[in-house]
Amino acid sequence: MNTINQAFGAVGNAVGSYMPLVEIASGLIKAIVEVYRVTEYNKKICRALAERVGITVAPLELKYAKAIVVKEKFEKLTEDYDTAMKDLNFTLVIANEERRKNDEIALSEDLAEFEKYLSAIDSKADNIYEEGNLIIDVVNFLILWRKELLRDKK
């Protein structure tokens, strides 16, 4: 009986020294599982935001394309008008030429401002997309790490 008690005591001493490590490992695993759940949620949010950015950028690009078409039509009509005036031997007044130049400058300035606006939106969309990809990479890393921990635990 005495040897049985000694054997149980030795086992208890051996296992007892590992208990703090088991508790630490258990706490780490719980923390990893919680981080994993949060990152999965963040991953879904990032995907939704990236889709919204894509949906927002498309109409702006269409508006920019329309603005370019309007500019080209404006320049063509101005050219046609000037040619018609010359063909009909009308004397163009300097003021008309000046007005045409001013209109052209104003249109160019408007397009330049619109292009800056689109560039700003485009860079913000790129940043959101890159941040979303970074979060997805972290989530994938945590998933692999969790699988590795669970595999090592078995």
From TrEMBL:
InterPro entries: Adaptor_Cbl_N_dom_sf (IPR036537), MLKL-like_MCAfunc (IPR059179). GO terms for biological process: cell surface receptor signaling pathway. This is Uncharacterized protein.
